Amino acid sequence: MMLALAFAIAAQTSGGYARPDLLVDTAWLAQHLSDATVRVVDMRARGYGDGHIPEAVFLDNNWIRNPKAPPTFLPTPLEFEALMARLGISNTTKVVAYDDRGGIYAARLWWILNYYGHSNVALLDGGWGKWIAEKRATGTATPAPAAAVFTVKPGTVKVATADEVKAAINKPGVKLVDARSQGEIDGKELRGIKRGGYIESSIPVYWEDTFDPVSKVFKSAAEITKLYRDKGIVPSDEVTVYCQVGMRASHDLFTLALIGHDLAKLRNYYGSWEEWGNRDDTPIKTRTP
User: Fold this and answer.
1) pLDDT digits (tens, 9 = 90+) for 104-141
2) Domain 158-276's class?
3) Residues catalogued as catalytic
4) Under DSSP, is residue 21 helix (H, G, I), strand (E, B) or coil?
């Protein structure tokens, strides 16, 4: 049954992606809301109580990153298992995550599930905005899924620590990618961080450049591939992405996975600029006025 489900998902996506199963569209989800093997997760920062996709459970994206747990900033395996169990997510569940910002929150869940060994997870293409624009069903009831058993396993994507990022600076075959805004890179937007700037040898790939700004639907594989290739990022590269707290980084990692990059070569510097810019022992480059 799960194999048939995977084929059905792949068949209904477009865009020429190497991994089309990482996205589902609104029509597919509307037909599978009641499937026992599917768990829809609402990752929006606000609005769940006012209305959400029927059967969707709510997950605050802050629950999947611990700012007081360096060097990885991850919840422990036991904490993550308990969280997934409460949401009714088991190791056989198809997880579909959505938000209202082009996948910035949903991609973080995609990344950490893959990190903890659960690859059966997709983002809703176009998210909440597309669902509402199509006038699809919504509800305000909070589902109470039966507790599931989720067991952490070795994953594919990886996490990077600050020390590993230091070692990756100017290293051949390794690309450091900065998913932040130009204002942050230029040191003009500190966002509460002590020091501004960027990491030497890092390449800016702004996360919002991978989807349509109005519909929030992901761009085609050709467009996303061109974005990365024009920046000099090729399939053989080890890629470590950072932002401020690992959300935008997760989004860049998701789009690299979507176009077929080897998952084992993808790392999220989860401490990101919140750690790097607040430490005194991390090298920072700044733009020359």
Assistant:
1) 999 999 999 999 999 999 999 999 999 999 999 999 99
2) alpha beta
3) 243
4) helix
How much of the chain exceeds pLDDT 70, in percent?
94
E runs forming strands in 195-244? 202-204, 238-242
- The dihedral through the CA atoms of 148, 153, 157, 158 has a sign that is positive
Residues of each domain in the chain carrying CATH 3.40.250.10: 2-133, 158-276
Nearest CA to 231 out of 206, 250, 200 is that of 206
Region class of 88: left (phi > 0), else alpha (psi between -120 and 50), else beta: left
The reported pLDDT for the residue numbered 289 is: 56
pLDDT higher than threshold 80 for residue 11? no
pLDDT tens digits along 72-88: 999 999 999 999 999 99
**Tokens for 64?**
């999947």
pTM here is: 0.93
Instruction: Name which of 156, 178, 161 is nearest 233 in CA terms.
Output: 178
Instruction: Write out the two tokens for 27.
Output: 């029509």
Q: Is the pLDDT of residue 147 over 50?
A: yes
CB contact burial 223-254 (16+ within 10 A = b; e otherwise): bbbebbeeeebeeebbbbbbbbbbbbbbbbbb
* Listed residue (39, 35, 36, 10) closest to 25, CA to CA: 10
CA-angle at 127, arms to 4 and 262, nearest 5°: 60
Helix, strand, coil share (%) of the chain residues, nearest 5: 35, 15, 50
Domain boundaries 2-133, corresponding CATH code: 3.40.250.10
Interval 234-244: pLDDT, tens:
999 999 999 99
Cα–Cα distances (Å) from 224 to 25, 121, 128, 213, 255, in that order, read 18, 20, 22, 14, 7
pLDDT at res. 288: 62
Bridge partners of 58, per DSSP, are 42
